[in-house]
Amino acid sequence: MIPKVILHTEVSVDGRMDWMADDHFLYYRMIADWKVDAMISGSSTMLAAYTEPDTPDLLAAPPPEKAPGMQRLLVVDSRGRLRCWRQMQQSEWWGEVTLLCSRATPKEYVASVKALGVDIIVAGEDQVDLRAALEEVHARYGIAVIRTDTGGSLHGALLRAGLVSEVSVVLNPCLVGGVSPRSMFVAPDLDGKDGLIPLRLLDVKAIEGDFVALRYAVVKEAAA
Length: 224
Fold this sequence. Notes:
Blueprint: E1 4-12, H1 24-29, E2 38-42, H2 43-49, H3 56-60, E3 72-76, H4 85-90, E4 97-101, H5 107-115, E5 119-122, H6 130-141, E6 145-148, H7 152-160, E7 166-172, E8 199-206, E9 212-218, H8 220-223
Parallel strand pairs: 1-6, 1-7, 2-3, 2-6, 3-4, 4-5
Antiparallel strand pairs: 7-9, 8-9
């Protein structure tokens, strides 16, 4: 069994995720009442958030104790890119941290992360098998609901694997334009309509200013 995954993101009206004026308070306030057990992010998102590696002094300090019931942070990093695990552990926004990696992830990297007190889930050969990883997340921690806080590549992998149950989109009242793939859903181009992911509208409402919140259910039968 896999947890329910809610894709939550903010995009411009033309679907871009870049160059928008930051309004993190609005974006996160929307989900304050959601009953979510964990958050999942990709390595690129964490590299953007933590631009400097952990310092020696920080690494020498023990991991902080977290209050029971805080959301767990799940980080997908099969290539061993991150050097900011202690900073992630110290964040006030989530509780315990788990690395989701593959069997191809360098063993030295996995060992160094584990030595910091980070839990490890290995799933997949060259890349993280997201379905297998989420099954283990449910079995190991009893996690029932996960929300995303990540970029288009991990969104695309989750959607293409049929792992997303709901899509929550905050429309930022602006247009960005461009030709680079900075959308909320980055994945290889389709060869036909068979790969479309149908959605069923659950809720739509205007929120502060000219922002709009959209909530959809993924039609699983057609998406599989």
